[in-house]
Write a structure and sequence with these properties.
Blueprint: H1 8-25, H2 27-34, H3 36-48, H4 60-90, H5 93-97, H6 104-133, H7 142-165, H8 173-176, H9 178-187, H10 199-205, H11 211-222, H12 227-251
Helix pairs in contact: 1-6, 2-4, 3-4, 4-6, 4-7, 4-11, 6-7, 7-11, 7-12, 11-12
C-alpha cells in the first residue's frame, strides 16, 4: 500500500472512488440525484408567476435560483446519502471498513464525497443556468452564497447520516426521507418565500434546518441582508449542523438492523 493511502485524505479518497463506482451502479439513486433536481425548478417557476413578488422585493429569478439549489441539496446530497449509508450498512460494508485503518468520521466523510461532489457540481450548473435564463446575474454578496452552499452541503450530509440511523432498508429510505424533504420544500422558502408568509408562520419556518441555507443563498444574490440579519440564519444553520453531528455520534448504526 502506498504512503498516500495511509493518510486520512488518502484513505477517504480511496473510499470515495469505490463509493463512486457503487453509486454509478444504482440506477434509481442516480436518476433521483441527477435529474429530479433539474425538473422541480419548473414547478417553482410556475408557482412563482402567480405570486406578487414585487411587493415582497423579489423577482422570479431570486425565487427560482435558491429553490433550484435547495432541490439539489435535498435530492443529490441528502436523499442519495441516506440510501448510501443504509445500503452500505446492510451490506456489512461499514462494519468491514471499521476493522481497517479508517476512522469512523473518515468512513462517513469518504462515503459522502461522491454525493457531495455531485450536489456541488449540480448546484453550480443550476446557479449559472438560472442566472442566465432568468436574468439574475452574478450574486451581489458572493460570500453569502458560498456560505449558504457550504452550510447546506455539510448540513444535508449530517441529516442524511441521522436519517439513515433509523432507516431499515434502502427501499424504506424513500419513506424516511419524506419528512425532511417535504417540510423543507414547503416551509423553508423554496416554493413559497418566507417574505410571502404571515410573520408568525415565517418566524417558525425560520427555525427549520434548510431555511438558513435558502435565506443565505437568496441574500447572496439580492445583496439585501445586513450583517445583523445574517447572524440569525448562520446561528440556526450551525446549531442544526452541531445537533446533527451529535445525533450521528449517538445513534448512527454500523451494523445491519434486525
Amino acid at each position: 500500500m502506498s504512503t498516500a493511502t495511509t493518510t486520512p485524505v488518502g484513505r477517504m479518497t480511496a473510499l470515495a472512488r469505490a463509493e463512486l463506482t457503487l453509486l454509478g451502479r444504482s440506477k434509481g439513486t442516480l436518476f433521483a440525484a441527477l435529474f429530479v433536481p433539474l425538473l422541480l425548478p419548473f414547478s417553482v417557476q410556475q408557482a412563482a408567476k402567480g405570486m406578487d413578488l414585487a411587493e415582497a422585493g423579489l423577482t422570479l429569478g431570486t425565487v427560482v435560483l435558491p429553490a433550484s439549489i435547495g432541490f439539489s441539496l435535498l435530492f443529490a446530497v441528502y436523499s442519495t446519502l441516506v440510501a448510501v449509508y443504509t445500503g452500505r450498512r446492510e451490506e456489512l460494508v461499514l462494519k468491514r471498513l471499521r476493522t481497517g485503518e479508517l476512522r469512523d468520521r473518515e468512513i462517513l466523510a469518504g462515503a459522502a464525497l461522491p454525493a457531495v461532489a455531485t450536489g456541488l457540481a449540480q448546484c453550480l450548473v443550476l446557479a449559472v443556468g438560472c442566472a442566465v435564463l432568468l436574468d439574475v446575474g452574478a450574486p451581489r454578496a458572493p460570500h453569502l452564497a458560498v456560505l449558504g452552499l457550504v452550510l447546506g452541503l455539510v448540513l444535508c450530509a449530517a441529516l442524511a447520516a441521522v436519517t439513515a440511523s433509523f432507516t431499515r432498508t434502502v427501499e424504506s429510505a424513500q419513506v424516511t426521507t419524506l419528512p425532511v424533504t417535504f417540510l423543507s420544500m414547503i416551509s423553508s422558502g423554496m416554493f413559497v418565500p418566507l417574505e410571502m408568509l404571515p410573520d408568525r408562520v415565517a418566524s417558525v419556518c425560520e427555525l427549520l434546518p434548510l431555511t438558513p441555507v435558502i435565506t443565505l443563498l437568496r441574500g447572496g444574490w439580492t445583496g439585501e441582508l445586513s450583517a445583523y440579519e445574517v447572524i440569525g440564519p448562520v446561528v440556526t444553520g450551525l446549531a442544526w449542523t452541531v445537533l446533527g453531528v451529535l445525533a450521528v455520534r449517538r445513534w448512527f448504526r454500523w451494523e445491519p438492523r434486525h
